[in-house]
């Protein structure tokens, strides 16, 4: 029989292996784009197989590999532990204070691209499965590890592909995406990415605005209209009011009071603008990429309809095309067994009260919810460094998350099996 103290001690005793695994993942570049996960996949597969865990890989797109592994009996409930092996690009190397592929430990932090998003969390999931297998911890169900290659580029060949192919099924899921230490994310805003193309009439730049019609000028008008989406009044469903209040209090407690209300409003980011061919030519085309995040109470389709209605008032020649992330706001009830298993074990490991909150962005969690699989996100992170230069994560958080993952995996089966698991 394994109790919680024994499992927690096993993580402590093997923490050097967890940290070494994290460092090795950081030392393998897996930037997306380009999206090549060949090398990191080979390493992960080798580590799992060395620990007597069978692995299957799938390559739905060249050099993008999904990894599936499982332990525990086939009968009973299935819990999915999910992570992504890709990272965003490192960007300008001169702006880093250390090598983004160092995996170095310094002043209590693990350093490198993906340290927070999300190779430390991914290492924790892999390590937890290996630990449970190595010490023959009894599981009253199947624990599945799903590692996907392209979360940072929209995820078409990762989680949704696995779910649509029927390769992954489950009754609950944890994604090791970065979060705060005490607050896993149990819901998230929707996403509406679209590309606006504005057409103009070319002419000699010396005669503008007398001749020609600038696509850039018209695009500016369109952008001013589109940015008004943040001012729309949107009424959230009644059953989300408490979760919204809790999430706003979380923002204030974590020194993000300036973002209060972000969960109730549409956000709008003008990401890129490409227009014209030369300074002395009236621009005949301007293309704008826009990222809107949607609160509960409005759908992607409703936003696009209203945006088109606004742009139709401008008398401009335009087209709109959706791309990238597309979803409505979604959540998992805090009472679900997977949420309880994670939250309760965070509270136990850290000896502080944990609770779930909303996420202002979106992730692969939406795909699991679309397939009626309850899901939440919890992972080690130095949130301010995610996607930025000098990304890092606290060593202590890596170890604590390793404990939470290991304890929660067993505790989850205890909950869904009515207390029949040998776990106290």
TrEMBL record:
PROSITE patterns: ARGE_DAPE_CPG2_2
Zinc listed as a keyword: yes
Domain of life (superkingdom): Bacteria
Pathway(s) this gene product operates in, as recorded in its UniProt entry: Amino-acid biosynthesis; L-lysine biosynthesis via DAP pathway; LL-2,6-diaminopimelate from (S)-tetrahydrodipicolinate (succinylase route): step 3/3
Entry-linked InterPro entries: ArgE/DapE, ArgE/DapE_CS, Peptidase_M20, Peptidase_M20_dimer, Peptidase_M20A
Needed cofactors: Co(2+); Zn(2+)
Domain Peptidase M20 dimerisation residue range list: 186-316
Catalytic activity: N-succinyl-(2S,6S)-2,6-diaminopimelate + H2O = (2S,6S)-2,6-diaminopimelate + succinate
EC number(s) per entry: 3.5.1.18
Keywords: Cobalt, Hydrolase, Zinc
NCBIfam families on file: DapE-ArgE
Entry similarity comment: Belongs to the peptidase M20A family.
PANTHER family for the chain: ACETYLORNITHINE DEACETYLASE, ARGE_DAPE-RELATED DEACYLASE
The protein's name in its UniProt record: Probable succinyl-diaminopimelate desuccinylase
Species of origin: Enterococcus alishanensis
The organism's taxonomic lineage, starting at the top: Bacteria, Bacillati, Bacillota, Bacilli, Lactobacillales
């Amino acid at each position: 029989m394994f109790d919680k103290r024994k499992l927690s001690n096993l993580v402590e005793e093997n923490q050097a292996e967890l940290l070494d695994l994290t460092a090795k993942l950081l030392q393998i570049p897996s930037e997306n784009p380009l999206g090549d996960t060949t090398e990191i996949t080979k390493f992960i597969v080798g580590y799992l197989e060395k620990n007597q865990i069978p692995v299957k890989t799938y390559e739905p797109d060249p050099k993008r590999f999904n990894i599936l592994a499982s332990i525990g009996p086939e009968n009973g409930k299935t819990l999915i532990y999910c992570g992504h092996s890709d990272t965003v690009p490192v960007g300008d190397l001169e702006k880093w204070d250390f090598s983004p592929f160092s995996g170095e430990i310094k002043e209590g932090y693990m350093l490198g691209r993906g340290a927070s998003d999300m190779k430390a969390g991914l290492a924790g999931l892999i390590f937890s499965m290996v630990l449970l297998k190595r010490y023959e911890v009894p599981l009253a169900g199947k624990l599945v590890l799903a590692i996907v290659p392209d979360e940072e580029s929209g995820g078409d060949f990762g989680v949704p592909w696995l779910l649509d192919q029927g390769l992954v099924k489950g009754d609950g899921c944890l994604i090791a995406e970065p979060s705060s230490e005490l607050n896993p994310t149990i819901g998230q805003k929707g996403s509406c990415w679209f590309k606006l193309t504005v057409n103009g009439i070319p002419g000699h730049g010396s005669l503008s605005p007398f001749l020609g019609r600038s696509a850039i000028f018209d695009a500016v008008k369109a952008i001013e209209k589109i940015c008004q989406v943040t001012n729309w009044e949107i009424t959230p469903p009644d059953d989300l009011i408490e979760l919204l209040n809790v999430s706003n209090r979380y923002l204030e407690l974590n020194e993000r009071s300036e973002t209060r209300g972000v969960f109730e409003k549409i956000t709008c980011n003008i990401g890129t603008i490409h227009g014209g061919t030369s300074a002395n030519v009236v621009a005949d085309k301007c293309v704008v990429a826009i990222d809107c995040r949607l609160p509960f109470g409005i759908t992607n389709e409703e936003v696009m309809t209203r945006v088109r209605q606004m742009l139709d008032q401008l008398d401009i020649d335009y087209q709109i095309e959706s791309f990238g992330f597309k979803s409505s706001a979604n959540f998992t009830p805090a009472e679900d067994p997977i949420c309880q298993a994670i939250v309760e074990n965070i509270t136990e490991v850290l000896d502080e009260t944990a609770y779930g909150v909303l996420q202002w962005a979106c992730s692969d969690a939406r795909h699991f919810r679309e397939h009626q699989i309850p899901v939440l996100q919890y992972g080690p992170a130095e949130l301010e460094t995610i996607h930025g230069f000098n990304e890092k994560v606290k060593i202590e958080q890596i170890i604590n998350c390793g404990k939470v993952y290991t304890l929660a995996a067993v505790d989850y089966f205890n909950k869904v099996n009515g207390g029949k698991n040998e776990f106290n």
